[in-house]
Give the backbone structure.
Amino acid sequence: MTRATPSTRSAGHLLVEALIAQGVETVFGVPGESFLAVLDGFHEHRDRIRFVTCRHEGGAAFMAEAQGKLTGRPGICFVTRGPGAANASIGLHTAFQDSTPMVLFIGQVAGDQRDREAFQELDYRQVFGPGTLGFAKWVGEVHDAGRLPEYISRAFHAAMQGRPGPVVLVLPEDMLASLTAAPVLPRAEPATAWPAPGALRDVRQLLLSARRPFVIAGGSGWDGPACQALQRFAENWQLPVGCAFRFQDVFDNRHPNYAGDIGIGINPALAGRIRAADLVLAVGARLGEMTTGGYTLLKAPRPEQQLIHIHAGAEELGRVYAADLLLQASMQNAAKALETLAAPVTVPWLDWTAAAHADYEASHLSRAIEPLDMAVVVKTIQRLAPPDTVYTNGAGNYAGWLHRFVRYPGLQHHGRTQLAPTAGAMGYGVPAAVAAALLYPQRTVVNLAGDGDFLMTGQELATAIGHGARRLISIVVDNGTYGTIRMHQERTYPGRVSGTDLCNPDFAALARAFGWRGEAITTTAAFEPAFDAALRSGRPTLLHLRLDPEVITSRTTLTAIRGTNGGADAPSSGT
Ligand SMILES: Cc1ncc(C[n+]2csc(CCOP(=O)(O)OP(=O)(O)O)c2C)c(N)n1
């Protein structure tokens, strides 16, 4: 077969063609003079791909990360050298910790200026390289325009394969301006691992010998069919399933086998149940600090429970825990395989599973709080919002209200409905919501933000308006303090408030200045009509909830924490 040879064009144009070949329709970024040739490529192909101009590279990188979470394909971000790359680093770190596929393109000084500490020059292999264990899986720098397609194909494969994550491609300015006739490469599809048949037989044997098994599902790489298969596996074996920290939409929260989420502010009954389990089957979850209660629910390195760990990345298996069985497989392949495991006619843990779900249901009960009750607020949001609503949050104790009271449907129903940083990055929720609203204009997006959290990336309200977002509601939970840190302070240094008080703007007026609707709320009764009006308006709306700092978490008060110097059920962290 003869292939048509493309005519000569700049590498900047070739790069945009290559993104289109990868199926990319939207990219996020902040422009820089270092990648003008790429911007010109976006102009050339503007009918097929859009460049969403953001107001800060941190916001742009968060948006790309959210795109990766929503689509399962790499989210794309463009930033300029030094300052732009430094600003974007929070999004890279989030993508790394959250195992989200993403490609960050960074403009670079021209080749003939290299190594002189030229204007804004950085060595990105040093700054973000895999050796930093937390920014990028791989950093490539492209010096030859003819090889740009190879680098892009590798970047897409690397971002999606094994444990997904972020990749950085560095683009010297002169390389981008040079001419090339190189053809683009086909769309990258990730290669996946299957669990070996022998290992599956071992999973079955361990299940058959268990009395109190527990499934922890989470991590990235799930899709609708995989979540459906996981649910059938849980049904076949009548297993209780908990979702790992901020992966709450992997298993349908309305299902009778659902036991709750395992993260910050965990339901104490659920924590006790995991400790009491005799077999934990972790599917896709990385078993990091947040999902293991600081490595106490499963004691590191040798848990008291038997442990089966299934993960897509070989490097995660045996990383902390000496498990009884390790399986490397993608979530699609793992779930399909688990679904085929023949279950016995009955299992001895039916009551155990029912009790796990009953504990979850009981955690939805809460004591009334005057004058503004966050539990009622979140329950009202979910009652009124469409079932496919995407919920986003950043970091802060306020997020606990969402985690505890939203019943996230499994991915098989509406795709991802939770965008939340397992990296605990403040400022994530607003840009993630903007990305979701732009990528899925028909869906409603609700962002819950703390007053500290919101102002880290609140400028992206302009991006939402500028790019035509409509069904977007941001709810700012304003307690006048960096509440999470205040909580830690009260536990460790009671009464000695330092560095945590906030001086806040009128958030509703601020939103209106950006062209959003904005309204302040001080009572529970006022919330429902305001939220209903926001839903009906079809315009981005900010609701500013004014709360007392006393309401410090969804489970305890400031006074209670101070009085008990910590309180037994005070969460260990609110990030
Ligand atoms: C980018 C970033 N900076 C700092 C922190 C540490 N941190 C975690 S939560 C928090 C306070 C959050 O305050 P707010 O948004 O007002 O929410 P609240 O805890 O009061 O509910 C801080 C400073 C972080 N997680 N991320």
About this structure: Residues 395-398, 424-427, 450-453, 479, 481-485, 574-575 surround thiamine diphosphate (CB under 6 Å). The CA atoms of residues 73 and 101 lie 6 Å apart.
